[in-house]
Each structure stands twice: as C-alpha cells, then as structure tokens.
Amino acid sequence: MSEAPPPDAPGCAGAVARYRSVIDNDLAMGHVNRSVHAQISNEIGEAASACSSGQDGRALSLLRASKSRHGYPG
After folding, report:
1. Considering the entire predicted model, what is its pTM?
2. Distance of alpha carbon 3 from alpha carbon 46, whole angstroms
3. CA dist 60 to 1, 35, 68, Å?
4. Cα separation, 19 vs 40, whole angstroms
5. At what angle do helices 11-29 and 56-70 cross, to 10 degrees?
C-alpha cells in the first residue's frame, strides 16, 4: 500500500490530504460522529481515486461538493 501524500502536496493530492486531515481531526475531537466521518471519508476516497487517475478537476469538484454538503469552508 502506498503512503498517503502530505497535506502540502501540490494539486488535488494535497487538497485530498488536507480535507482528510481535517475530518480525521474533527472525529478525534468529537466534532463529527463516526457515521458522518465514514460518509465524508467515502467522498474523499472518490476524489482521491479521480485524482490518482489524473482527473484533477473532477477530484477538486468532488471535494468542493463534499465540503459544501457537510458545512466545511472552501
């Protein structure tokens, strides 16, 4: 299994890593429950898949939609 990109990675890989970090932290702090975290994680996984297949625009669009749906900025 490959290592996840760091949050400061360029392009969609960094955007995926940053959002994943935020929701993982929100789960740890009790700001989201496990079912919401699982739903967002699935959405991030879809964006990560698009990103890894070279579909940067689609990946970023999926992240924006997920953030909007769940009340996260930008």
Report:
1. 0.88
2. 17
3. 23, 23, 12
4. 9
5. 20
